[in-house]
Every structure is written in C-alpha cells, then in structure tokens.
TrEMBL record:
InterPro entries: DUF3891. This is DUF3891 family protein.
Length: 268
C-alpha cells in the first residue's frame, strides 16, 4: 500500500521525488522484515491476543528490521540506504519528525543498531556519489526519507485507523498508532516537504464517507487514489496462546481494507 501511495505522489503542488523509481521501490519494501513475524503471528501473552506491532520487544524489532534492511540493500543500494534511514529513524524520533519518538524504552540494542547502520551509510554513499555533487545526493536523499515517513503514515492510517466520518478531535496520525481501538475524527501528518529545500506542510485527513478520505493539501497525480491491503478477520476474544491465534488465523476469511484518498471537495 505504501508503495502504491509513493508511485502516485507528485503534481503541480508537490514535486516528484528523485530518483522516483528507487524511492518507490524502497517504500514498497520498507516493512519486508515484518513478513515472517506477521505470519506467526507474534503473540501478547498478557492480553491473550495477537501482538500489536508497537508491542514488540527491542530485541525482536532489531532482528526483524536488520534482516529486512539487508534484503533491500541486496536488491538496490539506494533503496537499502533509504530503508536503513527509516529503520534507525524509528529509534531517533524519525530523525526529528516525530516528537518523542516511538516508545520502546531504553535499550542499548537500538544504539548499537543506529551506530552500525550509520557506518554502513558511509561506503554506500561513497559509491552512489560517483559523478554527483555530494550536496545534491544528500538533499534528495533526506527529502525522500521525509517523504517515506509521510507515505508510511498514510498507509498506516488507511490500514489501521477509523476511516469513517466523525467529529472527534483532530490528532496526529503519530498519536493514533499505539491504539487497538480507534475513534473517528480528522488526522494530521506534520512536516511533509513539498520540494527539496522548500516549505513543509501539514496534511489533514478527513473522512467524508466510510473509506473515502479527503487529503488537504492534495499530493497525488490523480484526483482519486484507491489503495487496498488484504487482511484476515479473527474473532475478538481472548486466545489461550499462539497456537490458538494461529488456528483462528488459518481459517479466517481474507478481506480487503480499502481507502480512497480524494481531493478536497471531490467526494467519490
């Protein structure tokens, strides 16, 4: 879903990211490290249910993201660099974009991971800079990183938040992610760049019909952007353990979570 969002980004008000194909590839693969844990799925023994993705331990989080980042580096160094920045940014308040960061507590593993990845960036950047001005590489790289955060948050909003109309208070998508039960209401994504080195804007997401969300300002090259992600729906009950949850998941019907982003005033 995030890759689909990245692929249609860019219009008269929002610059097309450069290199577009590599930024889109990175976005489509940015959570590949989660594939194996999601198939289990991970289990919350205290709450007797599948684990929310923000409840994972730091040890497991470092392992899964490390594996996913290595796979992306093997596919494309530039995409791997962006995903490495995304991963380590989760331990550094998204490199300044998310006040307070994501709450996992203090753990030396995250500091070790950040240091090791920053060392890897040096050689990768040296290779990518051949024939380029370093400042051009860095500017576009960090611009694309900031866009990746917006694309990530848009896909998280569309897949886990309540996209039905409601008059609840406006809140950052950041602040909604840790919840399992969601209330309707407008959501915002702050500090989204419109072009390299230019102003940043706050995107406001307002559901106008179930699954139809106005996005203001509007960043896509089509008037309506439908996005979907497959899901499995299991009964809302306590589970005795991981095997019980896996059994329910194995027989659950597949349903698509759908969301349509539309221009303000254009209600599908």
């Amino acid at each position: 879903m995030a890759g689909d969002i990245a692929a249609r980004w860019g219009n008269d008000d929002f610059a097309l990211p450069t290199p577009h194909d590599k930024a889109t590839l990175a976005t489509a693969m940015h959570d590949d490290g989660w594939r194996e844990p999601d198939l289990l799925p991970l289990f919350n023994d205290v709450e007797h249910r599948p684990m929310h993705f923000l409840e994972i331990s730091m040890e497991e989080h470092v392992k899964l993201y490390s594996r996913g980042v290595d796979e992306v580096f093997a596919a494309d160094p530039y995409a791997g660099l962006l995903i490495s920045m995304h991963w380590t940014g989760l331990y550094r308040a998204r490199w300044g974009l998310q006040p307070g960061g994501i709450k996992w507590g203090t753990d030396g593993r995250q500091d070790e991971a950040v240091l090791a990845e920053e060392q890897r960036w040096i050689e990768v950047k040296r290779t990518l800079m051949q024939g380029m001005i370093r400042s051009d590489l860095e500017q576009h790289l960090w611009h694309n990183y900031d866009l990746l955060q917006a694309w990530d948050l848009l896909s998280l909003y569309a897949s886990v938040c309540d996209t039905t109309p409601g008059d609840g208070p406006t809140a950052h998508v950041f602040d909604s992610l840790a919840s399992i039960d969601h209330a309707p209401g407008p959501r915002t994504i702050p500090s989204v760049p419109v072009a390299v080195g230019q102003e940043r804007v706050e995107l406001t997401l307002t559901a106008v019909r179930p699954g139809v969300v106005e996005l203001d300002p509007y960043p896509f090259d089509v008037d309506e952007l439908p996005v979907t992600v497959p899901s499995r729906v299991i009964p809302d009950r306590p589970y005795s353990g991981p095997d019980d949850a896996r059994g329910a998941l194995a027989v659950a019907a597949v349903e698509n979570v759908e969301c349509i982003f539309v221009r303000p005033g254009r209600r599908s």
